[in-house]
Design a protein that fits this description.
Elements: E1 13-16, E2 19-24, E3 29-32, H1 35-49, E4 58-66, E5 69-78, E6 84-90, H2 99-112, E7 116-120, E8 125-131, E9 136-140
Parallel strand pairs: 6-7
Antiparallel strand pairs: 1-2, 2-3, 4-5, 5-6, 7-8, 8-9
C-alpha cells in the first residue's frame, strides 16, 4: 500500500481466501484492506494517538439518512454530550480531493451538524471549522486536540 502523510502506527493484518484485512480498533474486527480503508485506518490512529481522542467517542462507517437517501460517513467524533464534534471524509490515496468531496461532506453535515470537518486522501488533509450562524466555514491548519470538558 501507498505510504501516507500520517504518522506510522502498529497495524494488524490477516489474510483469508486471498484477501488481506486490517484490524479496526473502533469496530473491533478485521476489515478487507482497500485503499480507502488504508486511509481510514491511518486517520483513526492519528485521531487516537496524535490528537488524543478517546476510542469511545469515535464512530466509523455508520449509515445516515440524507433527504431519503442512505449514505455512510467514514469517521465521526462525538463530544461527551453526544453532539458531533468532527466528521471525517476519507478518500483513496489515488483520488484527488475536489469540490465534489467538499460538497459531499457538507451534505453529511446538514444532517450531523458538526463543528469541524476533515477531508483526507491520506496524502492531503483539509480541515475547517463551521460557523453555522453565518452559514460559512473557515479553513484551519489542523483540528484541535481532544480536551476533556
Amino acid at each position: 500500500m501507498q505510504k501516507l502523510n500520517f504518522p506510522q502506527f502498529e497495524y494488524r493484518f490477516k489474510s483469508t481466501e486471498n484477501k488481506v484485512s486490517i484490524f479496526d480498533v473502533i469496530r473491533k474486527k478485521f476489515i478487507i484492506l482497500q485503499p480507502e480503508e488504508w486511509v481510514r485506518q491511518h486517520c483513526v490512529h492519528y485521531l487516537i494517538n496524535e490528537k488524543n481522542y478517546p476510542k469511545s467517542l469515535i464512530n466509523v462507517e455508520k449509515e445516515l439518512n440524507i433527504n431519503g437517501l442512505k449514505k455512510r460517513y467514514d469517521i465521526v467524533i462525538f463530544n461527551s454530550d453526544g453532539s458531533i464534534l468532527l466528521i471525517v471524509e476519507c478518500k483513496s490515496y489515488d483520488i484527488t480531493i475536489n469540490q465534489d468531496t467538499f460538497d459531499q461532506i457538507a451534505r453529511y453535515n446538514l444532517a450531523l451538524n458538526a463543528e469541524f470537518l476533515m477531508v483526507t486522501n491520506g496524502l492531503n488533509h483539509y480541515y475547517c471549522q463551521m460557523d453555522t450562524k453565518a452559514e460559512r466555514y473557515q479553513f484551519l491548519r489542523d483540528i484541535p486536540n481532544y480536551k476533556k470538558v
